[in-house]
Amino acid sequence: MNTVEKVIIKNFEGVYEPAEDSWLMVNHLPFFKGSVLEIGCGSGIISINLAKRGNQVTAVDINPKAIEATKINSTKNNVELEIIEGNMFSKLKNRKFDTIVCNPPYLPPTDRYNDPELSLAVEGGATGTEFTLKLLKEANNFLQKNGSIYIIQSSRMSEFKTEWSEEIIRQEKYFFERLSLVRFFAR
Ligand SMILES: C[S@@+](CC[C@H](N)C(=O)[O-])C[C@H]1O[C@@H](n2cnc3c(N)ncnc32)[C@H](O)[C@@H]1O
């Protein structure tokens, strides 16, 4: 078990274990309050932290084991989340949120992972960017006017451009990559 800012997370087989990218988001997301959608909640670490700060949080993951883990971890931490099993925005028709957060799968394909749930958690498409680009393309339909999207990016992804304005909130260097927490917002 890991304890971060009074949040207790139990790890489950087949569910992404919180790592540097998860902590980057938990520790450096700016303060905001309102409705938040997390795409790809994994163990629930980020959603639970945001709920503890007083946000109304909807946590989505495509992996049923992550959904189960988030349910158990939110109960352990005495927070209420709306927890939805689904593919990105597919179960959220006509919903809008003040903020969207995502620590996405961002690596190009690798044969290092022969575990399908781990591949789903870390591999973001042919150049590592495809998942993030899809999210940023569709997010406009689910974001309130003046809302922000916070996403983790890695130096191992290819460069990409979008219609959104960008602001780097925090960068951290590791031996094998540089991770950034980036805010996307409407111009
Ligand atoms: C890098 S992990 C992040 C987990 C957790 N938020 C954290 O930071 O520790 C990415 C998560 O995205 C989920 N995921 C992958 N593809 C998805 C999709 N199409 N829709 C929703 N979730 C997805 C994976 O199952 C995984 O739990």
Overall tally of structural domains = 1
Q: Average pLDDT, to the nearest integer? A: 94
Please give the number of β-strands.
9
> What is the topology, as strand order, of the major beta sheet?
5-4-3-6-7-9-8
Indicate the percent of residues in helices. Answer: 10-25%
CATH topology name, in short, is: Rossmann fold
Q: What is the ordering of alpha helices and beta strands?
A: EEHEHEHEEHHEEE
Proportion of residues in β-strands: 25-35%
- CATH H level: which superfamily? Vaccinia Virus protein VP39
Q: In the CATH hierarchy, what is the architecture at level 2?
A: 3-Layer(aba) Sandwich
Low-confidence segments, given as residue ranges, are none
- Helical region count? 5
Instruction: Round the Cα radius of gyration to an integer and report it.
Output: 15 Å
Span between N and C termini?
A: 41 Å
Biggest β-sheet, characterized? 7 strands, mixed
Bound molecules: S-adenosylmethionine
- The CATH class name reads Alpha Beta
- Which structural class best describes the helix and strand composition? alpha/beta
